[in-house]
Amino acid sequence: MPLFFDPFLVLFAFGVGILGAMFGGIQTFICTGFAGIVVYILKAAGVEPTLLGDTVLNTLLLPAIIFNGSAVATAVAAKKYPDQIQGWDITRSLIFLHDTSIMLVGGAAGSVGYLVFSFFSHIGLPVDPGATAIIIVGVLTRLLLSNGRKVNPDASAYYREQGLGYWVFQTVNCIATAAVFAFILHEAGPDFYGVGFSISAALLLFGYAGDGQKVPTTHQITSVVGTALAVTGGNIAIAIVFATLANHIYLVFAKYFNEDCSTHIDPPAVGIFVGSLLLNLIF
Fold first, then answer.
1. Phi, psi of 46 (to 5 degrees)
2. Which end of the chain has fewer surrounding CB within 10 Å, N or C?
3. CA separation, residue 237 to residues 68, 85, 270 (Å)
4. Cα separation of 209 and 192, whole Å?
5. Cβ neighbours of 87 (radius 10 Å)
6. Is 80 exceeded by the pLDDT of residue 194?
7. Which residues neighbour 279 within 8 Å (Cβ) at sequence distance 6 or greater?
8. pLDDT in tens, 131-166
């Protein structure tokens, strides 16, 4: 029986995981976005970007590998250096710690992320293998490496204080984002359903430039829009509904299970996982 993974890529993923720890989760994810945009531009120009697509975008910059490297290394760094970094904050490079063991943890996490991604890609379950790998590694990290809060106890009070207006605001913004991308991707055609995810990832460059987040995270919206269009044959209304559901799952999960917790479990990945799973099961 053939292996579900490539032994060479396990070693390659180890090196990629170290890069994730070196540069930071958000930083590498932004690079994933720009690489994806370049791939789709080349496709639009009639060029098949085999090397860039297969090696760079789908291996070197695959979030299941490089992002996991950052997230797990950050959790270990926070446990070892609690006065210098928080475990859920994957916006920082860990190079400032000058700690070889932290880099090696990132490498190991990259290899594990690749194995989980390859396994779920191989068995063909109706799930997004990338989001699944990020969630599984994130949950294991929380269970095994947490040295603090596993749940944010202030989340419920936050939502009570915000009231209904918060959800109206979020829903309007989400529907607008989903509708615009759904229309554009529908017109672009099935070969370009994934470019929305890439654009959202690249836009985080403006979101985390400087001190604090300045633009919203939207790849949980655009990813599910692309999936919905693919499985429904281009139904824009369904894409908007499921993208909105995924976004609200992201918001709730982020507040309860990620913000100010001891490790990072990626909220957009949770929204993508649930939205894509439901779409694949229903349609």
1. 85, 15
2. N
3. 33, 42, 22
4. 28
5. 26
6. yes
7. 224, 227, 228, 231, 232, 238, 242
8. 999 999 999 999 999 888 899 999 999 999 999 999
> How many residues comprise the chain?
283
Which residue type, as a one-letter code, is found at position 117? F
The amino acid occupying position 254 is A
For residues 13 and 114, is the Cβ–Cβ distance under 8 A? yes
207 within 8 A of 42, measured Cβ to Cβ:
no
**Of 88, 90, 52, nearest to 69 (Cα)?**
90
**Count of CA atoms in the C-beta half-sphere (13 A) of 140:** 13
Taking the alpha carbons at both ends of the chain, their separation in whole angstroms is 32
What does the pLDDT read at residue 209? 55
Round to whole Å and give the CA distance between 31 and 116.
Answer: 22
pTM of the entire predicted model: 0.95
Q: Running DSSP on this structure, what letter comes out for residue 190?
A: G
- Rounded to whole angstroms, how far apart are CA atoms 126 and 115? 18
Q: Which tokens sit at 259?
A: 């913000």
For residue range 53-93, list pLDDT tens digits in order.
677 788 889 999 999 999 999 999 999 999 999 999 999 99
Residue 210 has pLDDT above 80, yes or no: no
Closest among 184, 170, 264 to 225, alpha carbons compared: 184
- Unique residue bearing structure tokens 């779409």: 279
Tokens 């976004």 correspond to what residue? Answer: 247
Helix (H, G, I), strand (E, B) or coil at 153: coil
**pLDDT value of residue 163:** 95
In whole angstroms, what is the distance from residue 69 CA to residue 258 CA? 17
